[in-house]
Every structure is written in structure tokens, then in C-alpha cells.
Amino acid sequence: MTKYLVLFTIGSVIGSFCQVIAIRGLRAATLTTEPSHCDYCGNRLAWFELVPLVSYLVLQGKCRHCRNKIPLAGLFAEVAGGCVALYYREPSTDLLLLLIGFLLLIMSLCDWRELAVPNYLLGATAFTISAFLMVNNLFTIWHLLIFIVWLCYQRWPVFNKWLGEADLDLMLLYGVLAGPTLTCQAVLIGSGLAIMAFKVWQRRQLPFVPCLAIGYYWILWCLL
Question: From which residue to which does the signal peptide run (predicted)?
Fold first, then answer.
């Protein structure tokens, strides 16, 4: 029990950092020169306001200075990061699979805020998947063909009229990593969640990447 509590705590810290990367990446801001601050009033946050999960609960989801509500995306990032870390077993190449999970978390936060995903995150995910396959001697002609299709899609995004900019990218990358069966299962899970979210929020455009990222949890469960 203690092991899982430690893993969840570490993961929630990484998840909080993933949110920082997502926000500052969208703003083209640096990670080191700008201290953590409230997005509404601009006041710098003290260390006790940065403790994952605990700070949100103690502050009742509001800024200590201006009392504006803290976006739920931050809480989601910390919980999701903790959940990804729970898949950790022992030091091995499986750590690359967890890194993909955290990259998907960053992409989910970007998609949630701006309905857009930076290309460098997709590139980092593709590189990490390639590294996992090569280190484990799993790279085959099947993976090469899908990578070629993915690279062609980067040049000619023919399906962007019906899908978001990163949705098909992730489906193809899932196919490279896990094969068609697990990929179809992950997409079905994500699609089901997206339909339920649409029924609740009734938004014309919904971020689909967070739903696909949750589908990746199923892939992790099957691979690990």
C-alpha cells in the first residue's frame, strides 16, 4: 500500500509539472524564468500552494489572493499523473511507456485549453515509441509502414475536416505501439467517453485527445 501511495504522489508531482509545460508551451513562455503564479491576479504562489492535490483541497479550489476558482484541469493533471505512475513496476524499458503516458497528459491539457496540440509533442511521442520498439527488438515492417503513413499525414492532413489535428496522429501512433486490436479497443473507449462528454456539456467542439489518452491507460494495462 505504501508503495502505491509513494508512486501516486510522485506521479501527481509530475502531472502538475505537465500542466506547467502545457500552459507555458501554448504561451511560448519559458519554464525557468517565470515563477508559478495565479492566472487571474498574477500573484506568485507560495510553496504550500503548490502541493499536488492537497493545496487544491485546502484552498477549496480557489486562489488564496483573489478567490477566483482554480481551473479543474490542474486537479485532473495531478490525478492523471498519479494514475500513470501506478503502472510502474521496476526499472526497465517500460519506463518509456510511462513517458508516453505523461506526454499524452500534456497533449490532453493543451487540447482541453486550446483545441490544439503542438507538433513537437507528437514528434516526441513518435520518437519515444520508436525507442521502445527498437530497445525491445519489436520493430517490424508493420511499424515502418504505419510510420510512413503518419509522416505522409503530416505533409497532407486530408482528414482534418472531420478529425482534430492530433486525433488521427495518435491513432496511428497507437497502432505502431500496440497493434490494430488494442488500438481499436483504445479508440472505442475514447469514443465512448467523448459521446458521454458531449451529452453532458453539449459543446459543438470537444477535445478528443483527453479521451484517447484515457484509452491509452487500457493499452498500458494490457502491455504491462
Answer: none
